[in-house]
Write a structure and sequence with these properties.
Blueprint lengths: L5 H12 L4 E5 L1 H9 L4 E6 L10 H9 L3 E4 L2 H5 L9 E6 L15 E6 L4 H13 L4 E5 L8 H7 L2 H4 L2 E4 L1 H10 L3 E5 L5 E2 L9 E5 L8 H6 L2 E4 L11 H20 L4
Helix pairs in contact: 5-6, 5-10
Length: about 260
């Protein structure tokens, strides 16, 4: 297929500008995650010369069996779509819903809240960490970037397709948390309490603020606990995605410990 092909031009436009109903998953790991999560994969683009030794042939075969339109490209044509060195596979995927409608959560969920995160790579890494920590919901408040941006999908290695993600304004997000009696643990470098001190049992939301400005007053005032990740030397704070990993993994550990039978 020529790189000037109409369909490939449409994929390039999707890569540059996004689209209301579609997103782009780049790389076999992200595409596999989309299939595993039951996301609506509409088109699969492959460059056979990059799939040496039959690598990912099972993924291509599964796509064909499920009725996905598989399009073969040359490596050079595929490279015009991706910003990084292509591994031979990318997919056009229907965007999952990001509304509060029909949420199916446990009675006492663990929620990660990402407020006004600006960099899609950071948001994707938060999603990946949240998924690994067993978070039930990623709530993206006052978004400054798209949770299904190509870099967010890449940073999450496709975890955004498995993890339920909701996008909302702060006012709506706080109202939903209060309605469901979910405690708010706000992370802020100015907090006097270390992140390992509060209880993470029950329904709890770990809230992380933007890279430049941290959390807004609305979130800090609504918080039941404010915690910090202690830092030493000239470092006064951590990258938001790193902080998410530290606090969410502690929350997961604490919840598992409290649920374990004594003895």
């Amino acid at each position: 297929m020529s790189s000037a092909n109409v369909r490939l031009k449409a994929v390039r436009r999707l890569a540059r500008r996004g689209a209301p109903g579609l997103c782009l998953a780049e790389g076999a790991r992200s595409v596999r995650a989309a299939f595993a999560a039951g996301a609506g994969v509409e088109e699969l683009y492959i460059a056979p010369e990059l799939l040496a030794g039959g690598r990912d042939a099972d993924l291509v075969a599964a796509a064909e069996r499920s009725g996905v339109d598989v399009v073969e490209l040359g490596a050079a044509a595929l490279a015009t779509v991706t910003e990084r060195r292509p591994d031979g596979i990318l997919a056009v995927v229907r965007r999952p819903s990001t509304a509060f409608d029909a949420l199916d959560l446990p009675r006492e969920p663990l929620v990660a809240v990402a407020v006004a995160i600006e960099r899609p790579g950071n948001l994707g890494t938060i999603a990946r960490t949240a998924c690994a920590a067993g978070v039930d919901l990623l709530l993206v408040a006052d978004p400054r970037t798209d949770v299904f941006h190509r870099d967010a999908i890449r940073g999450s290695v496709g975890a955004v397709f498995k993890l339920r993600c909701v996008v909302a304004a702060t006012e709506q997000a706080l109202a939903w948390l209060r309605e469901h009696e979910i405690r708010i643990v706000a992370t802020t470098p100015a907090a006097p309490t270390a992140y390992w001190m509060p209880s993470y049992t029950g329904g709890v939301a770990v809230v992380l603020g933007s890279e430049r400005h941290g959390l807004t007053r609305a979130w800090l005032e609504a918080a039941d606990d404010r915690v910090a990740v202690p830092a030493h030397g000239p470092v006064d704070s951590l990258n938001v995605a790193v902080a998410a990993g530290v606090v969410l993994c502690e929350a997961a550990r604490a919840r598992q410990s409290s649920a374990a039978p004594a003895g």
